[in-house]
Write the structure tokens for this entry.
Amino acid sequence: LKSLQTLNLMSNQIASIDFKSFQHLINLEVLALDHNQLRVIEAHLFDKLTRLRELTIGENKLSRSLDSNLFEYQTNLKLLNLESNSLETIDEYLFRNQRQLIELNLAKNHLRSINENAFRNLKCLENLNLSSCLSQTSLNKNLLSSLARLKRIN
């Protein structure tokens, strides 16, 4: 399994994932966890997945906020989909190492707070989807100021 590059675990009713589950998949580039029942993701679950380019965790039951270190070692991510969860806050450090990220989907969450520096390091971001998740959220005027390559925002 060490040579595995794509893993699709979509629509499997997965409620939890042991934090050691992916540690041997060091060549994984695409991981799809959409349409499951995930409520919590362990802080170090993705640590060994340093080659990951696409990570989709949409349509789960993730709530409140994600651990600040969850994506710490995913410096090659190009696409991150967190759509249709129940996330309420995005802290300053969650995306701090995603300098290669091109597309970020946070649509259909329950965001109440996005730290004004949350997107600061997303220098390559072109597509940002915040649709249907900001009804009670006031965005800081500086939130998008560092996104020089941004082409589309929903």
Observations:
- The chain is about 0% helix and 20% strand.
